[in-house]
Amino acid sequence: MDTAPALIVPPARPEMPQAAAVAMLAAHGVTGCALLGRRGYYRDTMGVPGVQERGLYDDAILLVTPTAYVTYNANCDPSTSHRGMAVLEAGVWSYRVGIHGLSKPKDKQYLALVQAAPVTVHRDGEGDDTGWFGINIHRGGWHTTGSAGCQTIYPEQWPGFIATVRAEMHRHHLATIPYVLTERGAA
């Protein structure tokens, strides 16, 4: 099996207490079922301390529902930096199950979480932009986080992530699920 270099993924999953995650969601007016993204979760233990680097699984995404609580190693930044690259702004966004990679051949498309409403991104060197940009939550890569602006899950954890999110959405009769993206150092 192809495995990721130790440099882009931490040795363990995020260990945020469930009560802390629930409190962060509540601070954004979200209760019940949600995804919580935490940009910079491993900021001081991966890469350059104090710097939010790109191309690392140094963030966290947590599934929080009344019947499940699971943490995942994630990337909440683009893999690289260049003019116009989209970085999802912190906030509350709506996602649904859909197909990632619609512009790719059918054999490269797969189920993921896709935008269910417009999002706001900050474009490197250009400022903020709001709309439908295909900022999905999808599987990342082994040697790259695989993001041109999307939120990505470490590939070893992806099958469990998408299966559990879909099961929880079905269990709680949800067509969409809120994704609350927060920044380390902010609520």
Percent in strands: 25-35%
Based on CA atoms alone, the radius of gyration comes out at: 15 Å
The level of helicity is 10-25%
What's the helix-strand series?
Answer: HEEEEEEEEEEHE
**General shape:** globular
Which structural class fits the helix and strand makeup? Answer: mainly beta
Q: Enumerate how many helices there are, as a single number.
A: 2
Major sheet description = 8 strands, mixed
Determine the N-to-C terminus distance: 39 Å
Report strand order across the widest sheet.
6-5-11-1-2-3-10-9
Low-confidence stretches: none
The number of strands is 11
Question: How does this structure look, described?
Answer:
This protein is mainly β and 187 residues long. The chain is 13% helix and 33% strand. The protein has two helices and eleven strands, in the order H-E-E-E-E-E-E-E-E-E-E-H-E. It is globular, with a radius of gyration of 15 Å. The termini are far apart.
What distinguishing features does this structure have?
33% strand; 2 helices; three-stranded antiparallel sheet; mainly beta; 187 residues; single chain; eight-stranded mixed sheet
Question: What's this model, at a glance?
Answer:
The protein contains 2 helices and 11 strands, in the order αββββββββββαβ.
Describe the secondary structure blueprint for this structure.
Elements: H1 18-27, E1 34-39, E2 59-64, E3 69-75, E4 86-88, E5 91-100, E6 110-115, E7 119-123, E8 127-131, E9 137-139, E10 151-153, H2 158-171, E11 177-183
Parallel strand pairs: 1-11, 9-10
Antiparallel strand pairs: 1-2, 2-3, 3-10, 4-7, 5-6, 5-11, 7-8
